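Hi R.,

Here's the chain you asked about this morning:
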Amino acid sequence: QVQLVESGGGQVQPGGSLKLSCAASGNIFRIYSVAWFRQAPGKGREYVAALAWTDSSTDYADSVKGRFTISQDSGKNTAYLQMDNLKPDDTAVYYCEVQSPTQTYLGQGTQVTVSS
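And here is the predicted structure, written out as tokens:
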């Protein structure tokens, strides 16, 4: 059984920073990619960023490009989302999604609130 544990959410003022973590444990033998999504109250799920596990190539939504950075620690099966210059519109529950050869796993979500 595979478990994803997310952490790092919280409340921050506009312009502040947070770093989210997504740690995969259990019988996950290979990771293809990791993606971060977010969902704000009353809105649908929004793609944020993705990383290809083998070559570390990355992709970002236009709304976060230049402010967010997705990265990995392969030895720990952990992905990160560094979020800088946060804006109130970034307020949402953030989820990580891990793609393996056979299955897609979704984390439990972590709340990020950007407010003065």
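One quick note: The chain has a mean pLDDT of 94.

Cheers,
M.
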